[in-house]
Amino acid sequence: MRNCRILLSALIGLLPGLVLAQDLTKVPADAAGSDDRGADDASVLTRPDARTMTLAIPAPRGLITDRNGKPLAGNRVGYQFALQFAHFPDPIDAEILTWAEKRLSHASKLAGKNYEASEEVMLSHYKHRRWLPLVFSASLIAPEKEEAFRKQLIPGLVMHPIYHRHYPGGDSAAHVIGYVRSKGRLPDGPIVHGELLFEETHGDAGLEKTMDQELTGRSGERQVIFDSDGRKLRDELTRRPRIGHTVVTTLDRDWQLHAEKVLADHCKRGAFVVLDIPTGEVLVLASRPSYDVNVWVPRISSEDLRSLTDDEARPMYGRAFQGLYPPASSFKPVVALTALTQKAVEEWTEIDCPEFIEVGKRPPVKMWNWTREPEGLMNVTRAIARSNNCWFYQVGIETGPGAFLSSARKLGYGSRTGLPLFGESSGRVPTNEYVLKRFGRPFTDGDTANYSIGQAWEATPLQVAQSMAGIANGSVLPKLQMIKQVQDPTGGVLQASEPESRNPLHLDPDAVQVVHQGMYDVAHSAWGTGRRGGLSFAEVCAKTGTGQWVPALNQEIAWYAGFFPAENPRIAFAALYEGDPDEDVSGGRKAAPMIPEFFEEFKSEIQDMIRPPSRAMVVIEESEDDGTEIPAALPVDEDGNVIIPSGRVLRAIPVEEQQEEDGEPVDSLEQALPAIPVDDAPVAIPVQEDD
Questions:
Q1: How many helical (H) and strand (E) elements, i.e. helices and strands, does the chain have?
Q2: Which residues on adjacent β-strands are paired with residue 503?
Q3: Is the domain of 266 the same as that of 236?
Q4: φ, ψ of residue 2 in degrees (nearest 5)
Q5: Same domain, 95 and 112
Q6: Alpha carbons 189 and 449: distance in angstroms, whole number
Q7: What is the reported pLDDT for 48?
Q8: Dihedral of the CA atoms 445, 448, 450, 451 (nearest 10)?
Q9: Per-residue pLDDT reduced to its tens digit, 179-207
Q10: pLDDT-derived band at 43, boundaries 50, 70, 90
Q11: What's CA 563's distance to the chain center, in Å?
């Protein structure tokens, strides 16, 4: 928390400049009149011309960090050009405007921009608010220019300090972190009691929005007394702002950055998800393309907003948890698990798999295997490894859609995960009622065959990864976690996540082992479809998938999803490749290679994860106490370890100091729009796998 206190202390040191950005006892040379009278502090409050103003100081927002305390969202001090009006005895409008326009012109030359303010605004401000700066540059001055500009200021032209949100990762995890926006412009009439010194912000997307209550601090107060001529008689901080709580996420910043690089190396559009199976923690939630959330600071320009919303690639669309895609053959292990548990097939049952089967009677429809060739008799493990459509058509019909779609729901398909994700999609698992309503008929064998290979319904990449965590566990679906800790400004832990189960799966343990073997063969056998997805340091259980996503454009998507190590699984994952129209894709060729490229980078770290992890240590620093109450932290033992409700002991995660990084200014916009809403995905049809 030391960085937070440093920022707050620095800003408070600047606060006199927020209220009185220059010494108002000195009137600029080009203003008429000057009077250097001082004030006897003892008699200030009894002076008949004294004017008291109580101004609110917006509190800095709390930090958002990764699981190791590395910052994902923080605060910085920035500057904007402003006019600090001189006192004009018996002023006339022309005199005030000439004075102000001279300083606007000077600022425009310094910054290379055209700064303007209407005559109405300037005159109204002088009449009602001349004690406070009039900010006329909505954008922030770049840090590297601030010092040079300051040396060239003229009296009455000031650098108005504010703190603002800063996202050091730029576009990294943008869809998860989100952004803030102003709660509203400052008033322009007479100054009122408790008025804000500068605009307050609130979360408008991502964790900034869903965790806004925790991140929002408590405003401070400053009391300033002026005489009628604008001279400051007293300036006192009566209540310090209190920074918001720190939200420690489960994300790993280094893993997230590398996942985004892997996506960039392999596809134009896609997603990558990594989960810790025992805890349900989300380690990576990456979507491509993305966007730099710093463009919202302090306001997004109309040009930047148009660029984002008009982009056909939809960079504001978080594909990892908003994108709706057919799970395709990544769903086949669920059908196999259900069939084995229901005894529709046995481990040794062999089924003939021709190049196609005929389904229905009026007339029958040919439903093809992806190879378009017969593959003979197959048991369940070989059917999974070969991703044989005809095996799953027949077994799905025999098992019944009610059974395997019920398993899908227990594994998290068709409902949101419960994570604090803004705009998360629930997906859609078909029901008989849905089919009756849409098509005026109940399920047919053709529907069942299509559903059994993961077609004609939708899921998110996050849901696919979640289902893999459930299949890996075999008995329960872990409840996913996104927030690891919430800490108060002193570093005390207010909330901490614990491993929980979401749904019991009621699967036959023997069936689970059989399916695991089939998924092992996908990555390791000579006949598996996902051999490109193997790892050098762990045995992978996986499933390829290829689906036609937008039939009208012949647009396909590719999956590679699974878990490792095969024995005692720890990591679940899902990689999605979104192809271009008419592009020939497959899970084995397009998605599978992303897995070793990502995980091999963290080989040593993952090997340590597989072994029991050591307890994190932290030194909690002393903080300034202004006497205000802080919500009670979780109890600690005699050694200072935090005790969470289950009785488990942990320590607060140390939060790293923020690094000052240069940022680019942006133009203003009255309103920044939220993330693009999710469109319904079209109905999908089966397409090919590959060897």
A1: 20, 27
A2: 477
A3: no
A4: -60, -40
A5: yes
A6: 68
A7: 54
A8: 170
A9: 999 887 777 788 888 888 888 899 999 99
A10: very low
A11: 24
Helix (H, G, I), strand (E, B) or coil at 608: helix
Residues 440-481: tens digit of each pLDDT: 888 899 999 999 999 999 999 999 999 999 999 999 999 999
DSSP 3-state of 276: strand
Q: Which two tokens stand for residue 265?
A: 């190396």
The number of residues in the chain equals 691
Q: Does 621 reside within a domain?
A: no
Tokens of 507: 């699967």
Distance (Å) of CA 400 to CA 335, 446, 454, 567: 10, 12, 14, 31
Give the integer Cα–Cα distance in Å for 106 and 104. Answer: 5
Domain residues for the domain of 223 are: 2-249
Tokens of 374: 């017969």
Q: What is the pLDDT of residues 516-532, one digit of tens each?
A: 999 999 999 999 999 99
Task: Give the H or E element holding residue 434.
Answer: helix 432-439
Three-point CA angle 37, 43, 44, nearest 5°: 70
In a domain, 231, yes or no: yes
Q: What is the pLDDT of residue 224?
A: 83
Residue 46's CATH number: 3.90.1310.10
Query: Which residue is listed with tokens 């005559």?
Result: 119
Listed in sequence order, the residues at least 6 apart from 306 whose beta carbon sits closer than 8 Å to its beta carbon are none
Please state, for a pLDDT cut of 90, what percent of the chain lies above it: 61
- Residue 3 pLDDT: 53
